[in-house]
Amino acid sequence: MPDFITDTVLLWPLAIPLATAALCAAAWASPRVQQAASLTGLVLTLGASLVLLDAVMAQGIVTKQFGGWAPPFGISFVADRFGAAMVVISGVLALAAGLFAIADVRRRQVKAGFYPLFQGLMVGVNGAFLTGDIFNLYVWFEVMLIATLGLITLDRTRAQLDGAIKYAVLNLFSTILFLMAIGLLYGVTGTLNMADLARVLPQTDGSMALTVSAMLFLLAFGIKAGFFPLFFWLPASYHTATIIVSAVFAGLLTKVGVYACFRVFTLLFEVNDGGIRPIVAFFAAGTMLFGVFGAAIQWDIRRILSFHIISQIGYIMLGLAIATPLAMAGAVFYIIHHIVVKANLFFVAGAIHRATGTYDLRKAGGLMKASPLLAVLFLVPALSLAGIPPLSGFWAKFMVIDASFRADMAWLGALALFVGLLTVFSMSKIWIEAFWKTSPRKVSRVRAVPVAMLVPIAALGAITLAIGFNPEPLVAFANVAAGTMTDPAEFIAAVFAERQIAGATP
Amino acid sequence: MNLVYAFAIAAQMGCGVYLLLSRHGMRILIGIVLLSTATNLLIFVAGGLRFTAPPVIEPGLQVLAAETANALPQALILTAIVIGFALVSFAAALMLKTYRSVGSVITSDHTDAEALGSPFAKEAPRNA
What are the DSSP calls for A92-153, one per residue? Predict the structure, then answer.
């Protein structure tokens, strides 16, 4: 690769969506230009993130110090394998959403700024995955939040405004907690660079301020990710958004919270000390269980899926609670699998809505006969989410549950298996009501689903199948990615690697 | 000095949390504003409160002299103020829009999101 690219490889996943957002905002009056610019931007972003992943695979952790300041002083960007993989998978999801948007986004929604906001969301998400500075992470969270609030209120219906208020207040509260945690951490250590913190914190004596800071981090990310006692804003707001927005939120936003949780509780604080492990384990168990219970009584597809996001976050947190390398690898695998599958299910829900005109399962029906292709395309992510072999969800569940039995936390594993059973139950509810039973309406009006909707659904389904039938490469990748997470030495070394820049080093 | 600041921040946060627990939308918003400014003060205290020289590098030197102020907390607080301002103004606009469309700022009247696709409604209302 030419020097120019290797030098700036970390910037492009951020710079491209940012430029696209600006372009889309400039072309406010012309939806066609916005659509073309958005699609081009998404393809380029995915390309750039693949280049980044390639660079990370080839030469280990890639870092970049902005302004040429020596590490702890400037803002550093870091991509390890986990971060790079997250950027790639969010690029894939965003491209799928961009294709889906061709058929789904209405003119009114474009006028409300769908494309610039969507690109802005990608800026925030990619920034959060790549930053190596804890305060900078807060900034990316806020970038994400403001784009999210715009997206959730695209149609300005009463339900959306109501959902947006709940979303805004609780997420603002969460970022305030995050900022408090950063303030306390800075007071104790005097640094904000994550690699520097990972170096300084093990030598720092435990103190009240550090414990409070760790708890505040856990609460702040817990609200973002939707942990058990803190998740109630999620099913109160996600289902009100237009379906493509819900799909992107479901795939990416909670995962950013989970990602931040993994970063902070592997690099900065050890899960083992300070009694963090039992709390995380308790959160994980509650998240799995109550998410799936919530889903069980719902009749609206979007709400069933919203509650399932929570339940699945519990499985990922299971990995952090156990915190063995095996469990971490399982969690990495699970996140990648879940982003693909969950967004795909929301896309299918959008297709069901297009075909039957309703999200309410009691009113839907007859799709099996009317659209067998859609039925097959629904089965792939649904069975994968429930963990039926040989789909990707089976391997993801197998890895975390296997790790829990090996690490003497069998009760968590058993609970995970039970929750898997309930997941099958609520997936079969969608299957029976929407596809199997005959339509309850006298005149059955099933509309055709446009190809632009089916293509991303099929593509994401193909990824699920590919992971399911050939999990070996991804398992190997997850093991390596977990290795760099459980051992921060490589991360620190990469950030502090001596780079001679004139005038920067004192 | 630190203790005075600590009590002031605690009092402000207490007021913020009290307002957050209200059922009135605008009070909740003001509670958030109070909490976020209290957090900014917290960062300020965490950076260390001392009477120090301004952080300017003298001509001919490479680094700051001893006993100069730490500029980083101020940079952090400035960033946090700007971001907080943007989000609070958005939230205020959102609240205004909701007031115009729902006709109330009392949170117990904000039930539209729950009603959409509620499992207990006989027939779920359409997204309107």
Answer: HHHHHHHHHHHHH--HHHHHTTHHHHHHHHHHHHHHHHHB-BHHHHHHHHHHHHHHHHHHHT
